[in-house]
Amino acid sequence: MRKYSLLLTITITAAACHPANGPYRNMEKWRLVDGEGNSLPLRGMPQKVTEYSYPASDSVTPVKWKGRFRQFEFDSSGNLVSIDNYSNDSLIGSLRRRFDENGMQETWSNKVNGKLIATTSRRLPDGRIKTIETQTAEKPTATILRYLADGDEVIREEYADTAAQGQPVRITQLYYERYYHLVRARISSKDGNFEVDNFYTRAYEPDSTLTFNGAGLFKKLLGRTIYHSDELDNPIFVTRISKMFRSIEEFSYRYDKNGNWVRRIETMITKVEKGPNAVSTVTDREIVY
């Protein structure tokens, strides 16, 4: 995945963890974060969501692609407790989560190579959240998430060890307005500085997003995302323009009666010597309420 796209996804995932009080991650109820950044919670309190993706050229007869899919399951409180990935109807990876009022335990298992990633998050006495990640043949790492007193800023510090002492390897600063509007994210690491700015006129989702690398006089625009939404704040059409990669990604949506999207068409348009090249992918959702 391209770096600025990954940056946007990480930013919005972190944004879902904003509240400093109440149950752990209590804004993540019935929430799935899409690759293009759509992060509205699912409506109607669904129990299970299954996503099938296939080339748009095969949309007339997509049955042969049913063997490649992802399944998400929620508990009665809206916590995402399991994710299963299938290829050719065989389970290739699974994630399991357990929650309580102070933290979460998560295990990701790769069924192909046997690799395991275990993540444990706990709320510390001072209100910060510490996450320890352990994976096969890798050194364990830690992340500290802390909230400023007024609730308008969240700081995420990533460390190369579990002691979480000294200089973090990455720092993410998230700035909010009206509690839930993420208006800016800044990321600093050895790979450089990145910034994401969101602009709002609607209640929940942004109208547009700008992504930059560098800082100060050296800040350069990487890309822009434009959201066209309906009266319920559901994105209908999303356009992501990459200045760096000279490409355009377009996302269009169809919704069910509960207001959850059940079909997304993603089109990647890249500029090549012979002119624009477009490749489209369809993702269908089956939702059990």
Set out the fold topology:
Layout: H1 3-15, E1 48-55, E2 69-74, E3 80-87, E4 90-100, E5 103-110, E6 116-123, E7 129-135, E8 141-147, E9 153-159, E10 170-177, E11 181-189, E12 192-199, E13 208-213, E14 220-229, E15 235-242, E16 247-255, E17 261-272, E18 275-288
Antiparallel strand pairs: 1-2, 1-18, 2-3, 3-4, 4-5, 5-6, 6-7, 7-8, 8-9, 9-10, 10-11, 11-12, 12-13, 13-14, 14-15, 15-16, 16-17, 17-18
Structural overview:
- The structure is a single chain.
- By secondary structure, the protein is mainly β.
- Helix content is 4%, strand content 53%.
- The protein contains one helix and 18 strands.
- The chain has one helix at 3-15, and strands spanning 48-55, 69-74, 80-87, 90-100, 103-110, 116-123, 129-135, 141-147, 153-159, 170-177, 181-189, 192-199, 208-213, 220-229, 235-242, 247-255, 261-272, 275-288.
- The protein has an 18-stranded antiparallel beta barrel.
- Strand 15 and strand 16 (247-255) form a beta hairpin.
- It is globular, with a radius of gyration of 20 Å.
- The two termini are 32 Å apart.
- Residues 1-8 and 10-24 have low confidence and may be disordered.
